[in-house]
Design goal:
about 325 residues, mainly beta, 16 strands, about 10% helix
Length: about 325
Amino acid sequence: MKWSSLTTAALFAPGLALLRFPCSQLVVDRLDPLVSPGLIPSPHLHQIVGGNSFNASMDPEKDMPGESTCTTCQFSEDFSNYWTAVLYFKARNGTYKRVPQVPNSGFNGVNSGMTIYYMQDGLYNFQQTSKVSAFKPGFRMFIGDVNARTREEAERFRQLTYTCLQDINTRDPQIMDFPKEPCPAGIMTALRFPTCWDGKNLDSPDHMSHMAYPESGTFETGGPCPASHPVRMSQLFYEVVWDTRPFNNKADWPEDGSQPFVWSFGDSTGYANHADYVFGWQGDALQRALDSPCYINCPTLKTQSTQAMNACSKGRVVNEEINTWTETLPGGMVAGM
């Protein structure tokens, strides 16, 4: 399967029809209000960014902007929550260490977290695009399969990729599984969500069926939405930069030469890469931005300083060790699960 690739030049060229902004880390905790609502602790560890109303339940009837008192995102009207699993290193002796995150290119000083994109239809030809809709209050979605362990299983999802960073601006090549060699500047994960909505459901039992991919091509090339999901939405995707540099000594890697990284739920293939999203923009802020294409500087949106982003945080609910070497992953999981 071939993916449309966003080159460094394309991403950082001025005037493109996309929002690109950092969100610092809100909390690292074993909670998952989308897949395991109300469960404390959830089965595996996540890293979460966005509004500080994040909690174990996240009732869709709640007003997220009204519940939050701050957000870790640069655009201060965005109280959405975005989260992914957490990356771990498994040493040759079988112990595990959480891999830290570093800011993406252009976002020095941001405390870990991730980079968020809301892309307009037809990245390379945005002057000819049709109108795209913002997500609605109560909207939420999931992408990926935590049980995928083969390429064939992972290919159900078009654009969940890894990049072995040669420097912080690297974007290619993008691969579906964990890199097999040490990466000089870390590993970037990119998680791109589908872009066609059924126009009715804010969620679905699997948190995916209310969304679909275009019938052909990718969102960036403007493929048509299927009749079952006719509403064109902005393409949401995340980039997370994992600082694997402290673990690049191959003498610490498995003796059989296999790669040593594992997700917090035990996947050592990388095929189970996944992400969650709960919409929480204030009022019509996101639609205003989509109607007036901008890049980093968006005059229709309110912004806050890096210091304000970093100051927004939330205490952990689940009391467990996540910062030192451990015998198992949080929740007692091990690689290969």
